[in-house]
């Protein structure tokens, strides 16, 4: 089974399905989103969507309204394509730990999602993720995905690794291979048994090759669509692996085990 470990809700959804079919991807982890760059029809509208993205990944999007629409949109997409989409729900980090725990129960499990993410703490504030990890551990070790590209910092990656060691039952996934800090992300994953790396939007194929070599059982094929492309992301994995067990694990076997598929 080929599973894309990282994608976002598309508008319209059928455009995403066409990309998955072209890439030969069976299923994808689907994350909610506020920005929709695939809707843009020119530079001005694209800049608008990127401004929303910047607000989101910098941790500036707070309040219930910033989440409710994305939760509903994600739930509708998963309900429409349950055989293709595996929903992961984001929760707020700007509330008390007990409310975070309640959101994991209500907005993740209550909506039928299988994991938590993509979390976007403000830069150098990755410690805000810890209540989510505690709640995930209370529910049998739900996978948790945290944004890894800028503005996430190398310090944030070190904090996430420390939190992962504090919550060893929770698979913690750093997305986008840690962005420009990919070498640090790989080093930290080598030292942290429950720290995973998704390879989405990796900047250079050398980083993909090194991650697969150094952390073969905890690297996950991902596209970050619509920002990345499933065809190209799969090609990168196949470029640095040979047909066989390792490639199969990276392209979906490891994630299938994590999710009990």
UniProtKB/TrEMBL annotation:
InterPro entries in UniProt: ACMSD (IPR032465), Amidohydro-rel (IPR006680), Metal_Hydrolase (IPR032466)
Gene3D superfamilies documented for this protein: Metal-dependent hydrolases
GO cellular component, one term: cytoplasm
GO MF annotation terms: carboxy-lyase activity; hydrolase activity
Keyword Repeat recorded: no
One of the Pfam families matching this protein, by short name: Amidohydro_2
Taxonomic superkingdom: Bacteria
Domain Amidohydrolase-related residues, every copy: 3-261
Swiss-Prot/TrEMBL GO biological process terms: secondary metabolic process
Keywords: Hydrolase, Lyase
Protein name: Metal-dependent hydrolase
Higher taxonomy: Bacteria, Bacillati, Actinomycetota, Actinomycetes, Kitasatosporales
């Amino acid at each position: 089974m080929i599973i894309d470990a990282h994608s976002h809700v598309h508008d319209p959804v059928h455009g995403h399905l066409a990309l998955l079919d072209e890439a030969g991807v069976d299923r994808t982890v689907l994350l909610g989103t506020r920005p929709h760059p695939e809707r843009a029809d020119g530079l001005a509208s694209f800049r608008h969507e990127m401004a929303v993205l910047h607000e989101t990944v910098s941790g500036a999007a707070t309040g219930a309204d910033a989440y409710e629409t994305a939760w509903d949109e994600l739930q509708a997409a998963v309900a429409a394509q349950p055989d293709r989409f595996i929903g992961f729900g984001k929760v707020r980090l700007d509330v008390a730990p007990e409310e975070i725990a309640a959101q994991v129960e209500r907005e993740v499990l209550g909506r039928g999602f299988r994991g938590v993410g993509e979390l976007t703490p403000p830069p150098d504030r990755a410690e805000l993720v810890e209540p989510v990890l505690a709640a995930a551990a209370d529910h049998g070790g739900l996978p948790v995905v945290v944004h890894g590209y800028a503005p996430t910092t190398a310090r944030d990656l070190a904090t996430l690794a420390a939190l992962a060691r504090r919550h060893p039952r929770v698979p913690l996934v750093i997305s986008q291979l840690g962005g420009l800090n990919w070498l640090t992300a790989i080093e930290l994953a080598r030292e942290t048994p429950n720290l995973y790396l998704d390879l989405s939007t990796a900047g250079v194929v050398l980083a993909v090759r090194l991650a697969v070599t150094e952390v073969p059982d905890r690297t996950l094929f991902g596209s970050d669509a619509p920002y990345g492309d499933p065809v190209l992301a799969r090609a990168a994995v196949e470029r640095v692996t040979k047909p066989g067990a390792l490639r199969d694990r990276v392209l979906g076997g490891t994630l299938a085990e994590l999710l009990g598929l």
